[in-house]
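Severity: low
Component: inverse-folding endpoint
Summary: output formatting inconsistent between runs
Steps to reproduce: submit the following structure tokens with default settings.
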């Protein structure tokens, strides 16, 4: 029998935090649901970032197939600068609610990333992080009164700049985050109390924000305790309204979390040292110009830092693109040699720099190869890829930045409770679950056939091109404040 399905996301939630707090008795609802339900890891995408992970959650596809591999997309990384901020319009492949029949019942999608632009559904939709300031971010229009009554606000640049970029105190930042979590709970409480939902999703972003700022601090513990209490209240509301046997209850996260890296690994000087790139006079000049540029006090933001970039390689935080037009027949040999060298690389002959180094097409067979990195990697948590192309030193201490990130941790959380949940999970019962498994699981819960294959749709890039320069800068600063740029 089809059952109502309620899914609560905790962005970046990690068992590293939750397990310890359960043992201390600080999370009574989590303790209850882990003892009575199914607890697993929810394996994220590579890279384990918000945009590709939630796109996989929504489509049931890997990043290679839905086309979202980070917060930005590039048609030709070696051509004219054409980087675009991703949106729901750019996802190649229908999202689960777009595949479901119209008579499935009412659906709520609240704060699910990449739902901008919002669309008409049989229910409510509230968009998330990448929504431009001033654009419509909820459906239907009458929902606006409810959002205002509970103090709900979109996660815009003004809010995120207050908690990440401003000089407000730690207490003020915590109170802002606490207020946002409360607004989401109040919204969920009202919607569940007043309407009947067949499928309900709400994402608490606050677990991600607080961990970036305070990681294992008291502020993080308090937010987890706050959300634990909210989830407990919502669960008991559902039991009272529908009966414990008549719904499934899920708690998931899009990736894990870990302390911020202690060391930058600067790829460009290493590539020159190992002979993959030739020494460059331009790099030497850039170092001199940067040093004597007294107008730019912050040398990490120097306009000369990009002078070491080449037309052979394009380096990002999670991979390298290689210009096939330059190498021609030598492409495969060059790539194999570079992969081997990166796998063997150690810091002070002890720590391996990378936990994963592979060809993009080996990681995600099929899909849009042009959107993958030719070499895809994840650093070990101790390291991050250095942002500067003209540094002399290969390894540099990382002394600034946010307290914690998630760029090396694919292990999110998965919790499920409900009568018949073991049968629902089937083959996934005794193993980790991948984030792209979720739409099939939800469809099975609602007794909806989930198509194995699907007709692809053309990626639409109209959103980014329709944004004004000011809107693009606003979203860029929003992502930068979170450490994603």
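Observed output (run 2 of 3):
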């Amino acid at each position: 029998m089809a059952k109502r399905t309620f899914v609560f996301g905790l962005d970046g939630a990690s068992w590293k935090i939750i397990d310890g707090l359960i043992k201390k008795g600080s999370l009574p609802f989590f303790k209850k649901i882990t003892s009575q339900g199914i607890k697993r890891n929810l394996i994220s995408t590579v890279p384990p970032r918000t945009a590709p992970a939630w796109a996989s959650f929504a489509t049931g596809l890997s990043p290679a197939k839905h086309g979202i591999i980070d917060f930005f997309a590039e048609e030709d990384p070696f051509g004219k600068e054409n980087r675009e901020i991703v949106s729901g319009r750019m996802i190649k492949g229908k999202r689960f609610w777009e595949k479901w029949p119209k008579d499935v019942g009412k659906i709520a999608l609240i704060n699910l990333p990449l739902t901008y632009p919002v669309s008409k559904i049989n229910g409510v939709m509230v968009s998330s992080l990448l929504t431009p300031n001033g654009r419509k971010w909820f459906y239907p229009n009458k929902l606006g009164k409810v959002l205002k009554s509970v103090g709900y606000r979109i996660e815009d640049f003004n809010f995120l700049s207050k908690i990440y970029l401003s000089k407000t105190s730690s207490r003020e930042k915590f109170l802002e985050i606490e207020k946002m979590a409360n607004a989401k709970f109040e919204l969920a409480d009202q919607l569940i109390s007043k309407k009947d939902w067949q499928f309900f999703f709400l994402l608490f972003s606050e677990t991600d924000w607080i961990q970036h700022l305070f990681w294992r601090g008291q502020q993080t513990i308090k937010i987890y305790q706050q959300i634990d209490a909210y989830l407990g209240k919502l669960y008991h509301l559902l039991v009272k309204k529908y009966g414990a046997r008549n719904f499934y209850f899920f708690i998931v996260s899009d990736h894990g979390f870990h302390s911020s890296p202690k060391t930058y690994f600067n790829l460009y000087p290493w590539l020159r040292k190992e002979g993959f790139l030739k020494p460059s006079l331009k790099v030497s000049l850039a170092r001199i110009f940067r040093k004597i540029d007294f107008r730019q006090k912050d040398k990490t933001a120097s306009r000369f830092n990009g002078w070491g970039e080449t037309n052979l390689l394009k380096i990002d935080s999670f991979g390298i693109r290689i210009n096939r037009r330059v190498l021609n027949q030598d492409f495969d040999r060059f790539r194999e040699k570079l992969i081997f060298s990166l796998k063997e690389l150690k810091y002070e002959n002890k720590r391996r720099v990378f936990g994963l180094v592979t060809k993009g097409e080996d990681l995600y067979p099929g899909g849009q190869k042009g959107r993958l990195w030719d070499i895809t990697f994840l650093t070990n948590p101790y390291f991050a890829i250095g942002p500067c192309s003209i540094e002399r030193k290969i390894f540099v201490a990382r002394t600034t930045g946010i307290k914690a990130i998630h760029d090396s941790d694919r292990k999110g959380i998965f919790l499920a409770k409900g009568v018949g949940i073991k049968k629902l999970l089937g083959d996934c019962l005794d193993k980790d679950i991948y984030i792209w498994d979720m739409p099939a699981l939800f469809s099975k819960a609602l007794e909806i056939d989930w198509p194995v294959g699907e007709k692809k749709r053309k990626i639409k890039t109209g959103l980014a091109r329709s944004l004004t320069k000011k809107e693009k800068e606003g979203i860029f600063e929003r992502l930068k404040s979170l450490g994603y740029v």
